[in-house]
Amino acid sequence: MPDAPLRVAIVDDEPPARRKLVNWLSSDPDLTICAVCADGYEAIEAVETQAVDVLFLDIQMPELSGFDVLNRLPAARRPMVVFATAFDHYAIDAFQHHAVDYLLKPYDRARFADALAHIKRQHRQRTAADVQQQLTALLESVDRSPPPPLTYFTVKQADEIQLVDVETVDWIEADGNYVILHVGPKRHVVRSTITRVAGRLDAQRFARIHRSTIVRLGAVRAFYPASHGDYTVALKDGTHLTLSRTYRDRLKGLGL
């Protein structure tokens, strides 16, 4: 009798990344997708309520990181893991040492196929106790401190990649799964979410002033009270932005 398909859960806060994994995993007859999760809380619920053999788990997610997810799961419920990360800050050597595979974003189909073959071999060769021992050792050894603040953005153009110094960015605007960097009169589009970018910027130099806006404090000329507890943020270049009441408490140090 052939082995039952491996039950796979996908966990990533970015819709394009989830769609990519769903598309690539769906074509493999040895696998069945049992859950597609947009955050760490959904991942924990999926693993606790159903049998999951393998997690394709993003590391850098708002609120709960991939490591937080594993720490909150009982050891007996932790499945095998293929980590996904855009930042090699997260101890790639530790992943290799503890035989847990990883995908460094952006990864291609060939690298994905290698990870999939690796996890299948592990599933055939290792016991549940082996898996828990490896994951426990990983969680104890990996450096989970926050990555250093961004110093530049990588902007992909048609035929080149530009590096944009964060200190030249006046403000940042959300646009779905992208952000728009406003650098004087120039605009650069970067594929990322506003929440993810906010988490990587130096909080002493940048402030999120609205659910869709981040501003570099050095670019601000003045704050003016507006209606309903909001403020107007006037930049030195003449741009006017809105500081919403929701985010005003984050700027109490400025006397607002």
Protein model, in words:
There is one protein chain. With 256 residues, the protein is an alpha/beta fold. 30% of the residues lie in helices and 31% in strands. The mean pLDDT is 83.
* Number of helical elements: 8
Structural class by sheet pairing and helices: alpha/beta
Number of strands: 15
Radius of gyration: 21 Å
The amount of beta strand, in percent, is 25-35%
| Mean pLDDT across residues | 83
- Run of helices and strands: EHEHEHEHEHHEEEEEHEEEEEH
The side-by-side strand order for the widest beta sheet comes to: 2-1-3-4-5
Main sheet specs: 5 strands, parallel
Cα distance spanning the termini: 69 Å
Helix content: 25-40%
Low-confidence stretches: none
Q: Sum up the overall morphology in one term.
A: elongated
Strand-helix topology:
Elements (H helix, E strand, L loop, with lengths): L5 E6 L3 H12 L4 E7 L2 H10 L4 E5 L7 H7 L7 E6 L6 H6 L3 E4 L4 H17 L2 H14 L10 E5 L4 E5 L5 E5 L2 E6 L2 E6 L2 H7 L5 E5 L2 E4 L3 E6 L5 E5 L4 E4 L1 H4 L8
Parallel strand pairs: 1-2, 1-3, 3-4, 4-5
Antiparallel strand pairs: 6-7, 8-9, 8-12, 9-10, 11-12, 13-14, 14-15
Helix pairs in contact: 2-3
